[in-house]
Amino acid sequence: MSSLRYRSLYTGLVLLTIGALLLVGCSGNFAPTLPSPDGEAPPPPDTVDIYGQVTDSDGQPLAGVRVDTTDGTHTWTDTTDEQGNYRLEEVTTGSRGVSFALDGYATEHSLAVVEDQDVEVNAVMASPTEGSPTECPVITLNDPVVDLETGIATISGSASPVDSDNVVLLQNGQATLIGLDVSGDTGTFSNVVVLEEGQNVIYVVVANAACTTMSEAVNINYQPGAEGQFYFRVTLSWNRDYADIDTHVWAPSGQHAAYYNLEINAGDLDVDDVDGYGPENFTCRTLEAGRFRVGNNNYSLHGAPATACTVRVVTGSLAANRVTRVLGPYTLSVENFNGGYPVTGNTASWWRPCDIIVGQNGSVEVVAADNQELTAGIGPAAAASAGPYVK
């Protein structure tokens, strides 16, 4: 594994430290190598259960599947019974990546948002084309690259042996799924994370049929300079590498940020990810008081199965208060974008996760989406030849 050194493109203060790789319990009963759930302390507050059933591609229940999740501090694990049922008890609230592993089957991952009630997460496991790994995955992290202008960090590296095409990334205990580019039994990953002001603790969690491994901790203490200041940022990610999901934000002025119009007066959209897991980020950099409306569109699933989308909203140093919210996952079906306007709510091809209200003093509030009809407005940076339906 690499030693960490700091590389920055801009001025500012970022402190990086890295902990030891956790490879405990790699032998015997496929024990997970995550932090052990000990009995010395009472369960943390605000917990619920994650439960569900695991089946094969023919719909038959699978027994003996190892199911686990972690928030980076605590780990929850269970094994499916003869009916394929499992239950992870007293899981802390937040975004959780759930791994499903069994010898002879490709490892599966799902994203669950745990709030105020038990969450059902089912999984379907398909047989791999070759034998399952018999050794725990080893994770190698490259040096993270921190961009202080945009307040992001690129986390990249590799893992081997793997039997899945995605893994879990944890940032301050909140999970997202990231894709693996697999060649043989080795997978490489590269993912952009949006830094929160202050401490950011980042892990990569990799599961295979043998066990589950959590990487070293990447600690980034981010204090944004003048270039990196913003009011709020909306981050969209999804769990299928073939999907093209789009972020849309309507500002109080009516201007509309989208893949064909990245910049509006209030802020900008960083990228249009057409065939990956995201993330796509809209950053509000200029104070524009009023209601921002967020919409996510299934531009194309390329005829493949549905995808689950997650939205994360965080405030920056310009905001008068601090907010971190995770919404979803919301399932978008194979019904693709067909003109798509007007937008009035959640449909097979649209998800309206929230609205964001910005006060005159820079306060930020995440609220339920309203039912106002939204149309394809064009902002000042859109090229005259750009059309809303062409990529």
Largest sheet: 6 strands, antiparallel
| Outline | globular
- Category from helices, strands and their pairing: mainly beta
Oligomeric state of the chains? Answer: single chain
Explain this structure to me?
- The chain has strands at residues 13-18, 47-56, 66-70, 75-79, 85-92, 94-101, 108-114, 119-120, 123-125, 138-141, 145-147, 152-160, 166-171, 174-179, 181-183, 186-194, 198-207, 212-214, 218-223, 232-238, 244-250, 256-257, 263-264, 267-269, 280-284, 290-300, 307-315, 324-332, 350-358, 364-367.
- It folds into 2 domains: 1-37 and 47-225, Immunoglobulin-like, CATH 2.60.40.1120; 229-367, Jelly Rolls, CATH 2.60.120.
- Strand 17 and strand 18 (212-214) form a beta hairpin.
- The chain is built from no helices and 30 strands.
- Strands 1, 13, 14, 17, 18 and 19 form a 6-stranded antiparallel β-sheet that branches. A 6-stranded antiparallel β-sheet has the order 23-24-25-20-27-28, with no helix packed on it. Strands 10, 11, 12, 15 and 16 form a 5-stranded antiparallel β-sheet that branches.
- It is mostly beta strands.
